[in-house]
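Appendix B, record 7
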Amino acid sequence: MASEALSRATLFLSLLFLLCAIFFTSGHEEDSTRRTMEQFSGYPVEPPASHLVSSQSSSLSVDAEGLQRQIDELSAFSDTPAPSVTRILYSEKDVLARRYIKDIMGHLGLSIREDAIGNIFARWEGYEAELSAVATGSHIDAIPYSGKYDGVVGVLGALEAINALKRHVNLMDIICACIEESLKLKCHVIYSSTLHVSVCVWGFNSLSNHLSEVSGFLPKRSLEVILFTSEEPTRFGISCLGSRLLAGSKPLAESLKVTVDGQNTSFFDAAAFAGYAKNGGDISSVFMKKGHYFAFLELHIEQGPILEKEGIPIGVVTAIAAPASIKVRFEGSGGHAGAVLMPTRNDAGLAAAELSLAVEKHVLDSGSVDTVGTVGILELHPGAINSIPSKSNLEIDTRDIDESRRNEVIEKIHQSAVKIAEKRGVKLSEFKIVNQDPPARSDDMIINATVTTSQQLNLSHKLMISRAYHDSLFMARSSCCTNTCLNLNAHHLPAAAGYSHKPEEYASPMDIANGVKGSLLHGFLSRDGTGAATRRGGRRGAPVKEEGEDLIRPPVRVLPPLGLWDLLLLEVVYALSVGHALERSGLAREVRRQPFPPAGCTVEKIMTKRKKDDSAIIL
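Structure tokens (predicted):
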């Protein structure tokens, strides 16, 4: 026993001497070490000013090509041929598309759950899991013959943002911080060639496991990606169904018990076909409690021409216009198109046409370009060329950033409907306000943080109002977010020619990547903007203090110190196996083709062709 202890002590002291010798000589050999590194990498290497200067803003990278590939693959789940996309709620294609998204979520290692109506949640647990989470997301359902970007960018873009955070690791930042914390040495010590090359064997045996443990990138608050059910009103005539129910709309939950689609299929039968609503008509479990989310962000194409026309890549949404929808029905006596003379007719079709023109008049008379109105549906019964319409159904959409002005327009439309029915001798059998939602304003803190991020990334931006409403509108008005979800923001991307809801809908991969990086990634990294400030460190790490942190730049990452044995292990692994390990792994070839700067070096840059399986290094 004594001899064994003596041998271990001798080995320990020998290794300690080797390590100290390397450290003490590294300062004198800095030039030669740098030359060796430059020969190895094929690129000039400049020393960093300090490892405390965060390079995260520049080194976080978005896989634009991979994201575009996912968008293209998802578009294949459609009931109409390409380039159009038709994906109706609870249809077979919708179910397959959901499965595709869940596969991506699972591959990222996120915990997945689904509620009673099919809202899907993918969660990346933060290191302060008791805090309310930061949420983002959108929808993937698509109206008939539409495009492949509406909503999809917000879902797949959010998953790519998390993927970017998970795969991001600044290797030299880790080693430098470990050394400084453990031995209080100066930053230039990282130029030890031994330590530099030992990075390349990171991923082997116990060293790999240990560094993975202490260097994992974790959010402070949990991050949750939501795939909302039925943002489009295509099947059941209810827009943003999933987010409305998350926001706690009990009247909507009750109305769904008697809601049917155009084929007289009930909502709950359709949901059961897709594997949801297993408790029948009870969907109260969908409602979220107050404060469930700290903030909500949504990335979306603009669906209008402003950003593309002005050449601006980022639209920072300051408010969402207040939408309202109305159903109107006129009933007349009908009759033969030739036998009933004009003075004696009670034409429900002409009543609908006259009301359509009245909608336009009242909107224009508001005096504001922000007031809009659309008669999107007009149906005539029996719908024969030689028959006077006996029934007409209209569905009207009107929006404004001023709620009172919009409500005034709605009242004028109602008055006109009454007068038209009386004048034409038809019955106004229905005038129903389906929804009359208030506008939502984004939180100033998030707006300012996004503007700052755009400036740091040299991306021009525009403060704008979202004329189209999205699920973020209902997350904003809900009780499920802290402070009634005032910490809301939506971000717009340019859409080619402003096209949306048609096959020509398009957003460039560069614009999508800019949106992911400029809004979601840096929204996740802000302190007060989303509260998702990040740290590195696994089970042994201590949380980073947040006082006085910048809104965009993440706090300095204080790593749990490596023990002396850990540092010796770095040296031993290098001395015994670096050459063999490099050749065996194929990393040497990859490293030689890549820049190898101490700052900004990422696993993604080095391992450009890593496998997509469990053996890959995914942080």
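Remarks on this record: The mean pLDDT is 74. The chain has three domains: 2-45+170-214+555-606, 64-165+221-320+440-535, 322-436.
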